[in-house]
Write a structure and sequence with these properties.
It contains one helix and six strands. By secondary structure, it is of the alpha+beta class. 9% of the residues are buried.
């Protein structure tokens, strides 16, 4: 996990990259598991919003307009063709 500081000194952005997968369906299956785990940890006050970009699933968890967000997404590594699952937490 890496911590990136942006904006004000109180802002925090965390990112977690998991080891790459050879197939998209393997990465998608892991995203489903992560979504369920994150949802149960965050509680009922958080909403889950699923979208897609370039045909790849993205899931956002949001609580309010100015509250932290969680993003789970899949991307393809163009250098070796593997699939990556990324979990981003923006506490700004």
């Amino acid at each position: 996990m890496t911590e990136l500081k942006k904006g004000t000194p109180r802002s925090r952005y965390y990112s977690c990259n998991l080891p790459p997968f050879g197939k998209l369906d393997e990465a998608t299956a892991l995203v489903d598991k992560i979504e369920n785990s994150v949802s149960s940890c965050l509680g009922k006050d958080w909403s889950r919003r699923k979208t897609s970009s370039d045909g790849l699933p993205k899931t956002y968890f949001e609580k309010g307009d100015n509250d932290p967000t969680v993003l789970i997404k899949i991307r393809k590594d163009t250098s070796d063709g593997t699939w990556e699952v990324k979990l981003d937490v923006d506490l700004d």
